[in-house]
Amino acid sequence: MSGPPQLDTALVAALADFAAHDRVLVATDFDGVLAPLVVDPMDSRPVEGGMPALASLADLPGTTVALVSGRALDPLRELSGAALDGPLVLIGSHGAEDSRAEGGLALDDDQQALLSTLDDELGTLREEHPGLRVEDKPAGRVVHTRGLPEDEAQAALDAARELGARHTSLEVTPGKGVVELAAAHVGKGVALVALADEVGAEAVFYAGDDLTDEHGFEALADDADADRAARRLTVHVGDGETQARFRVADEQAMVALLQALLDARRAATAR
Ligand SMILES: [Mg+2]
């Protein structure tokens, strides 16, 4: 009989320490952490148990819960199932969008012009690499190559990166099978620390699987609040090098982790 994935004992101890603080921020990436990566990004679905555990955490005292994603806010809300007026904070477009802000984000005329030039150039790129997907985001475009043959995907990613590099005001962010080209960019690290400051968190949990999440792990390690930096609980999902303190294998293990965190936080806040 296979039970839920077993968590590392050091991680379980760290979760208990984290849960004991009065005010905590529990933040996590969505794709590759709560939902398996899929060929079409709009086919993404959260694994069972992850979102309910986050919602239960958000109901506990002194506990702010946030999804921090590269996705635009609307698809993030739709795919995660997080309620519009629910307790979860949704941060989209790598920090450029916040579910609590009114009207989303504003681009200036130069940024709007840059996006329309980018659309023309990406149209040409798509003719050269059929099967390439381009996702529209409020402040940028994301080129997806998942599902393409490997050498074709690499050539398309390289071309997208070069295209992005020609526009110096674009922020070019490579990921797994994606390149994001953003006219306005905040970054997950900046967004995480700003949210932690805003809610007065004494400790921050963050889990992610991709290169952009490494910026989050680094920013939390370099937090100007040195006590909070020392208390950070960062978790990388999957293989590969990481700055995170802990690692879990996959989305199922992440659900087990969130359940353990919920149990620890319930025990700590009941005292
Ligand atoms: Mg991810």
Automatic annotation (TrEMBL):
Cofactor: Mg(2+)
GO annotation terms (biological process): trehalose biosynthetic process
Top EC class, one word: hydrolase
Protein name: Trehalose 6-phosphate phosphatase
Stored InterPro entries: HAD-like_sf, HAD-SF_hydro_IIB, HAD_sf, OTSB-like, Trehalose_PPase
EC number, as in UniProt: 3.1.3.12
Keywords: Hydrolase, Magnesium, Metal-binding
GO molecular function: metal ion binding; trehalose-phosphatase activity
Pathway linked to the protein: Glycan biosynthesis; trehalose biosynthesis
Catalytic reaction equation(s): alpha,alpha-trehalose 6-phosphate + H2O = alpha,alpha-trehalose + phosphate
Entry superkingdom: Bacteria
Keyword Hydrolase: yes
Protein family according to the UniProt entry: Belongs to the trehalose phosphatase family.
Function, in words: Removes the phosphate from trehalose 6-phosphate to produce free trehalose.
